[in-house]
């Protein structure tokens, strides 16, 4: 019986040490734009909440090309606070199905949080 009690104590203490920290919660982490003509600039706001118990700090983002720009809060987001990741995608010179991702680096995890979007860009007829 003592071994069982010891196992329960270890399991509970492990659970408590694994919780905590900052944590993103997005209602949507992917967006699909309607078919769009080449040259249009698409925008979208990804709303999020910090559901963790410490302030969330976004340090940087990474995208595949300069056609995708992101604006994010520079100040820490308090627990239960919210923020917006603003996306801007320039379709100039793009055509066909565009599948793009945004990697957000923060203190929420050692792995980036991914947002994504897709759009079918219809090329201009010259």
Describe this structure in words.
The protein is mainly β and 126 residues long. It has one helix at residues 2-18, and strands at 24-26, 30-32, 36-37, 41-50, 58-62, 68-71, 82-90, 96-106, 113-122. The protein has one domain (21-122): Immunoglobulins (Immunoglobulin-like, Sandwich), CATH 2.60.40.10. The chain contains one helix and nine strands; from the N terminus they run H-E-E-E-E-E-E-E-E-E. The longest helix has 17 residues, at 2-18. The N and C termini lie far apart (81 Å). Residues 10-17 have low confidence and may be disordered.
Short summary of the structure?
The protein is mainly beta and 126 residues long.
